[in-house]
Specification:
Layout lengths: L1 E5 L8 H10 L4 E5 L9 H9 L4 E6 L11 H21 L3 E4 L18 H23 L2 E4 L13 H11 L4 E6 H7 L3 H7 L4 E6 L14 H10 L5 E4 L7 H18 L2
Parallel strand pairs: 1-2, 1-8, 2-3, 3-4, 4-5, 5-6, 6-7, 7-8
Amino acid sequence: MKLSCQENLVPGATFADRLANLAAWGYEAVELTDFDGLLRSRVAEIKSALADSPVQASTICGGSNVQFIHPDRTKREESVRQQREILKLCAEFGAIGCIVVPMFNHDTRIPGLEPIATTGQLQRELLVALMRPLAQEAADLGVCVLLEPLIRYESDFPRDLAEAASICDEVDSPGLKLMADFFHMNVEEADIASSLKSAARHLRHVHLADSNRQVPGRGHTDFVAGFKALREIGYDGFAALECRIAEPKGKTLAETARFLRECLDQAQ
C-alpha cells in the first residue's frame, strides 16, 4: 500500500515544494484537489512538478458543485461535463481516478413518485444511468470514477460500502469503482475489516483519518485490523490522508507516516 496525502494539507509555498516535503516525510503520492474549480489552470505547474519528483499523483478529489442527482437536467448535464474534464486530467497526471460523492444532504433532491417510485429508487436509477456512459469514458482513458460513501450527517447515498459496491455491480464497468474512508466507515460500518473484504471486488482507493478526523493514531480506530483486511484482499493501491493536520504540520505528517508504516508492519 502506498501512502498519499491531499495536497491542501501539506505545507509549501509552491506545488513543487509540497511534493518535496511529502517525499521527505515518507509519502509516495499526492491527492490533487479541485474544491475551488481551479485545477485546470494549474495543469502546467502540476505536470512539471510531478515530472521532477518521486511523488506521483494518486487521485483527484473534489469537483466544483458537482450534483449528479439534481432534479434540474441542466445541472446534471453540467456535472457530467465537469467530471469528464476531471477524468481527462486524471489520465494526464497519471492518477488512477477521481473521487465522486453523488449527492450531499444539503443538495436539492428529486421528489418521489409514489406509488411508482420513491426518492431513493429514483436517485439510484438516475445515478446508474449517468454513470454508465461516464464509466465507459473513464475506462477508455484508463482511469475510473471512485464512488465515496460518506457519514450519514454529510450524505445518505450511497450510505455504505455495500450500497456503493452494488451500484458498481449494476453499472458493471472497470471505469466505476469505489473508495473507502476510515473516518466514515468508523460510523457507518459495523465492522470495518469485514466491510472492506466484502467490497474488495470494487475497492480502488482509501482515505485515512482517525475516529475524531485527526491524523491516524490520535483517535480510537484500529488501523492494524483495517490494514490486515486490505492485505488479505490483496489491496496494493493508495491510501491518502484526508483529515485535520495539527501544527506543526511537517512534524505531524512525518510522525503519521511512521505510525502508518508501523501499522502496516503489524498487519502482516
